[in-house]
UniProtKB/TrEMBL annotation:
It catalyses: a long-chain fatty acyl-CoA + 2 NADPH + 2 H(+) = a long-chain primary fatty alcohol + 2 NADP(+) + CoA. Its EC number is 1.2.1.84. Keywords: Coiled coil, Lipid biosynthesis, Lipid metabolism, NADP, Oxidoreductase. Belongs to the fatty acyl-CoA reductase family. It is an enzyme of class 1 (oxidoreductase). Residues 199-226 form a coiled coil. CDD domains: FAR-N_SDR_e (cd05236), FAR_C (cd09071). Residues 18-309 form the Thioester reductase (TE) domain. It comes from Kalanchoe fedtschenkoi. One of its GO terms (molecular function) is alcohol-forming very long-chain fatty acyl-CoA reductase activity. This is Fatty acyl-CoA reductase. It holds the Pfam family Sterile.
């Protein structure tokens, strides 16, 4: 890859369209752009809304009012930042990526975007692994298609960045490779994957469910989730989370965690996989941990992901072709699964969570179950067998314990479903190949503007995992996620 000219300089006077603007990574991206290049021409921020007025409300309530922007407000002054944002830079756009032309109804606004946009950054997706199949297809499959078609109408387009996930990629000799899938190709080699046909299958299933008079909306949702998982397993996908000659970059981060440095350490929003485990454990609701303690968990801080996106924009501007980058840590700075419960025990022992009654929650060392067999045995003896005994007692006592039994059964059913959903990742051992990303890092280091090296650090080798988890991530998660 050729050395870059100034990355910050490249962003000057550029117009960027950002989708999924209320998402975790998107907010960090917007803050970063405004922080390093106030002379960016315009940021069109697509938000799910019926019109620009509704989008404007969401912009201020769900993005600019967040703690994330406090450093920017201190830097520019609250009034100066407000002027910068409201008068010139950020333009809230009401729309929906599941619709043609992104659901943008105002004709003048649409034409303005097509004439002015230089860069498209697609950060819109549903990351719910247990999503309804129709919703997942509309957002994660048809959404990128609509965004790509919209981008093709942008007459000054210099780069298209699609942010996906590293967990949808090909595997070779235990290494998850930086290679795109071909049309119709699947993880397990099954043939016959056709998205148009799949969409028809989904619509027929949904129609069939809606025609059943006794089914509630909740029952239809549950059925569509199960149907999605069934279709996913058929083609080898672990779940339903899924250009022509334009400069196209597919950027695949692994598990995105709290910021390590910018705009400040420890900012996080939305509960991710490891955070849900940390919350359950810190609140005393988790006694065991399922997974291979010797396998590697691939984490990457959000600000490193954003830095890689911005460098990729500058590196691929006006260079037709497709490039895939995997942004993770397992290859250059692997972190063992076993370290997470170990550090979690130390942290929550030293910093116990205080519950609603003002009592400090005492945590015990967590029991690690390293096989599905050991998990099922543990659940059977600890929960399922007692539940069956309660069921018998409930019947004998004329359903006196109905309420207690229903709640207990629901909790066990939720745990078992979550384990099935996350099963492909619990014993996941491959390492993510990041050779392309390493070339991108080298290009940033060789940039003619030395300031870029400071601004765009995304080398996972620089992370001290114990220090990050104990002094950044756990405290950040407790402050911003624990309720």
């Amino acid at each position: 890859m050729e050395p870059l000219s100034s990355i910050v300089g490249f962003l000057e006077n550029k117009t960027i369209l950002v989708t999924g603007s209320t998402g975790f990574v998107a907010k960090v991206f917007v803050e970063k752009i405004l922080g390093i290049q106030p002379k960016v021409k315009k940021l069109f921020l697509l938000l799910r809304a019926k019109d620009s007025a509704s989008a404007s409300t969401r912009l201020y309530e769900e993005i600019l009012s967040k703690e994330l922007f406090v450093v920017l407000k201190e830097k520019w002054g609250s009034s100066d930042l407000s002027n910068l944002i409201s008068e010139r830079v950020t333009v809230p756009v009401g729309g929906d990526i599941s619709c043609e032309d992104l659901g943008v109804k105002e004709v003048d606004l649409k034409n303005e975007m097509w004439n002015e946009v230089d860069v498209v950054v697609n950060l819109a997706a549903t990351v719910n692994f247990d999503e309804r199949y129709d919703v997942a297809l509309a957002i994660n499959t048809m959404g990128p298609k609509h965004i790509l078609n919209f981008a093709k109408k942008c007459v000054n387009l210099k780069a298209f960045i699609h942010v996906s996930t590293a967990y949808v990629c090909g595997e070779k000799a235990g290494v998850m490779a930086e290679t795109p899938f071909k049309m119709g190709e699947t993880l397990n080699g099954t043939s016959g994957l056709d998205i148009n046909f799949e969409f028809k299958v989904m619509e027929e299933k949904l129609k069939q469910l809606k025609e059943e008079e006794k089914l509630s909306e909740a029952a239809i949702t549950a059925a569509m989730k199960d149907f999605g998982n069934k279709r996913a397993r058929r083609f080898g996908w672990p779940n339903t989370y899924r250009g022509g000659d334009m400069p196209l970059v597919i950027l695949r981060p692994t598990i995105v965690t709290s910021t390590i440095k910018e705009p400040f350490a420890g900012w996080i929003e939305g509960v991710r996989t490891i955070d849900s485990l940390a919350m359950a454990y810190g609140k005393g609701r988790m006694e065991c941990f399922l997974g291979d303690p010797n396998s590697t968990i691939d984490l990457i801080p959000a600000d490193m992901v954003v830095n890689s996106i911005i460098v990729a924009i500058a590196a691929h501007a006006n260079r037709p072709g497709e490039t895939v980058y995997q942004v993770g840590s397992s290859n250059r700075n692997p972190l063992k699964y076993s370290s997470i419960p170990l550090w979690g025990h130390i942290y929550f022992t030293q910093n116990p969570w205080t519950d609603r009654d003002g009592k400090k929650v005492l945590v015990r060392k967590i029991k690690i179950l390293d096989t599905m067999e050991s998990f099922h045995s543990y659940m059977s003896l600890r929960y399922i067998l007692p539940l069956k005994m309660l069921e018998v007692a409930n019947i004998a006592c004329c359903h006196y314990f109905d309420g207690f039994y229903t709640i207990a059964k629901r909790k066990i059913d939720v745990v078992m479903r979550l384990v099935e959903l996350y099963r492909p990742y619990l014993f996941f051992k491959p390492i993510f190949d990041d050779k392309n990303t390493d070339k991108l890092r080298a290009a940033a280091r060789n940039s003619m503007d030395s300031g870029d090296v400071f601004h765009f650090q995304f080398d996972p080798k620089t992370i001290d995992w114990e220090d990050y988890m104990m002094n950044v991530h756990f405290p950040g998660a407790v402050k911003r996620l624990f309720k």
